[in-house]
Structure of DNA-directed DNA polymerase family A palm domain-containing protein:
Amino acid sequence: AQSQPWEFNGHTETARMIYGVEDPTPLQYYLGKKTSHGVMRGMQGKKLADELLKEGTVMAVTECDWLIQRFFETKPAIRDVYFVEVRQQVWDHRKLTNSFGRVIEWPFDRFGDDLYREAYSWPLQSDAADLINQQGLIPMHHWLKQGKMYTKILAQVHDSLLFNTCIEEAYDVALAFKGWIAEPIEYPAGPLSVPVTFKIGKTWAGDHEWKRLPSREEFNEKIKEIIGG
């Protein structure tokens, strides 16, 4: 969990473990990523097959069942520890609290798979959203306003912020954002500092990505290249 994005890719590692290969193909990487996301929502084989079909990938339910089975074989603690602990908290308190103190409650909901699926994914999803808001959007808003800067925050997209900026401010914005987001979050197993990646471009999709923030010179040269191209 403490590895940096240029050192370790969790989805690549998941694909390696599922398929037993050192260098997963793009399809294996994609299926490993979709399986990982689906499992954390309590997804079964049929639901995973339906989700893949929506994105143009046809797989039999039995193949999707195998992907999920392999995932749990390689990462049994998710099912045998994390899922069990989440269900126990829901049974005992009918609520969960995330790392930022936000609470979700199910005072009248019937215990069952639908409730548990929501509960499995909520702590992780809500932590990601609260992190980007509390340690990203809010301090960046005040910092930009106090500095009377040209840069504007255009959108919060669950686990990322989209800025409209200029070459004179872009690197300072990236540096400030990285500093606030990197503030450690306290978890039962210890503090976790969430790594940050960066994209720049003329559109929302971005034309270039860095897993690690480069030097100011490299950053600005790439901006000039994109603008000039």
